[in-house]
Amino acid sequence: HWHASAKNTISDNGTLGVRVSGASDASFAGGNVLRGNAVEALLVDEASILALTNNEVVGNGTRLSAQLAVTGESQAVLEGNVIADGRGFGLKLQSGSAVYVQSNRIQGNRSAGICIIGGDEGGSDTALKLQSHIKKSSRLSTPKEGATDDRPRRPKQDDRLRQTTARSLPTSQTPPQSLT
After folding, report:
1. What is the spatial distance between Cα 21 and Cα 104, in angstroms, rounded to a whole number?
2. pLDDT averaged over consecutive 10-residue blocks of the chain (180 residues)?
3. Distance CA 128, CA 114 (A)
4. How far are the Cα atoms of 28, 54, 86, 100, 157 from residue 79, in angstroms, in the given order?
């Protein structure tokens, strides 16, 4: 477990400010500043876990990157942060990541404030939960053996086709047998 306590400045690095990778567990407590890093201020990948609370993430990234990127089955809790004035996306989620967002200020980024890129070919989906509160006991942790994954899942293609067909038919018709 890696922990950055308050009042660290991580700035003006040539690529990443911080990379959390390889099933790592990291947290940034309040008052840290991640500013002016060339690609991303913070990249969380390879099934890692991150808690980012009450920090400033300002002016990072390129046109196609993000200030914060969460990928590769990683999980993150973002609470009370300022994610602003990035040269690309504020927050980018992809490849099966799950992110819980509460009480952040995401503004002034040149691309989307939050960019969600769907699941990969293997069926992993990306989940974003915008919450009014996060219970302290629900802080993300490494799944225990036998635990279930309660992240919302996108319906399979056949399910989406069935739902679309059922909604678009007049009430007197039923979907073809092959779709039910």
Report:
1. 24
2. 85 94 87 94 92 95 92 92 95 89 94 82 68 47 43 41 36 38
3. 10
4. 11, 6, 18, 8, 34
8 Å CB contact between 31 and 6? yes
State the pLDDT at residue 113. 95
The SS3 call for residue 158 is helix
pLDDT at 167 (0 to 100)? 38
pTM: 0.69
DSSP state letters, 93-153: E-SS-EEEEES-EEE--SS-SEEE----TTS---EEEE-S---GGG---PPPTT----S--
Distance between CA atoms of residues 83 and 2, nearest Å = 21
Helix, strand or coil for residue 69? strand
**Contact between 52 and 29 (Cβ < 8 Å):** no
Q: In sequence order, which residues have a C-beta less than 8 Å from that of residue 166 and are 6 or more positions away?
A: 175
Per the structure block, which two tokens stand in for 165?
Answer: 């067909």
* Residue whose pair of structure tokens reads 């040539």 in the numeric block: 14
Q: What is the pLDDT of residue 124?
A: 57
Amino acid 4: pLDDT: 80
Contact 25, 1 (CB under 8 A): yes
